């Protein structure tokens, strides 16, 4: 009992989602090497001065042929607002992530007292507030950045009906940007999505597609993921982990799935309790390709094994290392504009300084949380 409860909590802590049924999805557009950006130069032309997602190169590229760097558990911060909780996966919030060039935000949602809240495992462990408020803050950014397309991935931990998510999207104002695919095999270019002002693509786990809110997309109808809860630097690979019925990567791509790389490393602290690992973060979040565990290497390996550019990548502590460079390399971009550096956004002590000093503090609280939970049951 103790162990099963701990496992349940821990798997949720890391960000587990249930598995959904699968339907065929978009055929990825031209297969192109991560290292050969010229592959998309043949698409329909757009204004030469246009910049999409920080680069003119991306305007004509299909949505599903772009690598989006993403913040895993983007709402769960290890900063002053959470008492530097070790349950936090990020030092900087989603607005800073978007400013820095990330275009993919993942978070976990719970139904607490009939309100959707961003909670990590449990609202007693780390509560980042109502989903609606967070969406409103993201919406502010989207309003202010009319040439950017972003993607959201929400883990529906309590299997709440899609209509409840639709309410939060509507209240936040972000639903007006919602993109609804018209085909499961063809995605438009970024410039087409920008022209229609449908610039937010939202995936949610454990929902059924709804005609009332067609822009809220069941994740595993569209995306397959590589394994998570990786504990060793050599543990990252490109195997399809979820959904179980996607088949091999080549089968999944032939059915139109897009690939998501989970590239975050956890660390065992006690019993079955894992936390995001900051000790190896400079290796794990490096765009380099020459060391075991490098983000750049993992992306390159998946690109080679899949013969497709990975669409989504999730990292912890995105401001550490060179995560956005890794996406640029995958996209073949070296001309990015309009990003702000993390340093210039940072208030207070730097994230790197916070790593060692906050660890013990939060650890006690985390262990106490699990001890209390286990005792209650
Ligand atoms: C991030 O923090 C800034 C400054 O506190 C705030 O203005 C912004 O709304 C926050 N963004 C999110 C998504 O919470
Ligand atoms: C939900 O309700 C319970 C019982 O009234 C309360 O203890 C808890 O703090 C509430 N949760 C939130 C997030 O308000
Ligand atoms: C843009 O909007 C028009 C009119 O609603 C629609 O026919 C078209 O499919 C949309 N294009 C994209 C890329 O969503
Ligand atoms: C990839 O990692 C998962 C989880 O550790 C493992 O089950 C699977 O066998 C690995 N795939 C390969 C090809 O080694
Ligand atoms: C690995 O590559 C990075 C640049 O991508 C370089 O700075 C570093 O020196 C290389 N390390 C080794 C051991 O070759
Ligand atoms: C950062 O600090 C400056 C100056 O103290 C303040 O004006 C600003 O609101 C802060 N920004 C954030 C995002 O907290």
Cα distance spanning the termini: 9 Å
CATH architecture: Alpha-Beta Barrel
Shape: globular
Describe the largest sheet: 10 strands, mixed
Mean pLDDT: 84
How many β-strands, per DSSP? 12
**Which structural class is indicated by helix and strand composition?**
alpha/beta
Poorly predicted regions are 1-46, 344-361
CATH class: Alpha Beta
- Strand percentage lies at 15-25%
The CATH H-level superfamily is Phosphatidylinositol (PI) phosphodiesterase
Q: In the residues, how many domains can be counted?
A: 1
Features:
single chain; 377 residues; alpha/beta; TIM Barrel; 10-stranded mixed beta sheet; 12 helices; 31% helix; disordered N terminus; binds 2-acetamido-2-deoxy-beta-D-glucopyranose
